[in-house]
Amino acid sequence: MSIHPYSIDIPQADLDDLKDRLARTRWPQERPGTGWSRGVPVDYLKELAAYWGGGFDWREQEARLNEIPQFVTEIDGQDIHFLHVRSPEPDALPLILTHGWPSSPVEFLKVIGPLTDPRAHGGDPADAFHVVIPSLPGYGFSTPVREDGWGNLFRVAQAWAELMSRLGYERYGVQGTDVGSGVSGILAMIDAQRVAGMHLSGTGAAMPFGPALKLEGLSEADRVRAERFNTFQAEGLGYLHLQSTRPQTLAYSLNDSPAGQLAWIVEKFAAWTDPSAKLPEDAVDRDQLLTNVSIFWFTGAGASSANCVYEGMQAWRAMAAQPSSESPQPVTPTGVAVFAADSTIRSLMDPTGRIEHWSEYDRGGHFAAMEVPDLLTSDLRTFFHNHR
């Protein structure tokens, strides 16, 4: 039940090893003129890797992270790392934010200040939050994973409910993106008496291994999202197929090659961020992106998160094999934010109109807290304003 303060302190030997490995990268050949169509271009990754090993200052980023209150507690035999920033406003609503893959609590750094202290960021102090931002088991500093089963989102949601109890929060909101949206949905179900509201982002139009979406009858905006989803399903699922079937085979590359780990993550930031961004760093801050990649590298989370994805997909396949039944009607107030790169379609996600708050934006993408923190912050304030 104990909660311990935590401070990040990566050994200098690990930093030296990273720079040495990057300098000795054995770069592959590339077919001329292919651009991003076959993955991350060599010239682009060479430049980014050179910056990671040279201009990027991990110690500066580490110091900034350590300015944020961090803690570790053991739940169900697993160390859970989390950020916990209390608002100066005494009536603030506790809010637990859950990242997805390939991410970490670093994703939410730009929204912590505006959410916890709106008075200092041009907002209404009545919309303040106490924020809790855990690292998913197998990600970041919630490593190493000590036993199988932490890829099961139900188990993670149970751990989050226990975490909020240990922090003394008897009523709280939840927000999640990507895998975190699944955790948040389960958390709102199993702890419905305490969850004031659920806000989701980074959701998809359908399950990735299901059939392609039909375009007939969709609005122009939803047709664009459906076409984006169908393209993703046809051309962008290689990472998920590999992680959900052979994670250990992939683990050797991610754990041994920082260039490999960098490419594995950066490709998703190229594919999933705002469509108007030509390169990942046009959508997100490059140092913030590399801080996230560095945490994956230093903790070995590339391998452990891949195994958690495997377990999560095994659980999904087992659930999908069961006889279908009507989804239970949600009892928790729900809000959804759809950003420019998302494929979420309301008529598919909410055919009966049960979701009370639905926002669609022409900016941002899958990593909204990094790309458009202003929009995500505003949407959270608006949704939770009447659920405090």
Provide a descriptive summary of the structure in words.
45% of the residues lie in helices and 13% in strands. By secondary structure, the chain is an alpha/beta fold. A nine-stranded mixed sheet has the order 1-2-3-5-4-6-7-8-9, with helices on both faces.
Question: What's the alpha carbon Rg, rounded to whole Å?
Answer: 20 Å
Give me the count of strands: 9
- Relative strand content: 5-15%
Which class of secondary structure composition applies to the elements?
alpha/beta
Q: What's the total helix number?
A: 16
Q: Termini, distance in Å?
A: 27 Å
Which SSEs are present, and which pair or pack?
Blueprint: E1 3-5, H1 12-23, H2 42-53, H3 58-66, E2 70-75, E3 78-85, E4 93-98, H4 109-116, E5 129-134, H5 153-166, E6 172-177, H6 179-190, E7 195-201, H7 220-235, H8 238-245, H9 247-256, H10 258-272, H11 280-283, H12 286-299, H13 301-320, E8 334-338, H14 346-349, E9 357-360, H15 368-371, H16 373-384
Parallel strand pairs: 4-5, 4-6, 6-7, 7-8, 8-9
Antiparallel strand pairs: 1-2, 2-3, 3-5
Helix pairs in contact: 1-2, 4-16, 5-6, 8-13, 9-10, 9-13, 10-12
Task: Quickly list its features.
388 residues, alpha/beta, nine-stranded mixed β-sheet
Short description, anyone?
By secondary structure, this protein is an alpha/beta fold. Helix content is 45%, strand content 13%.
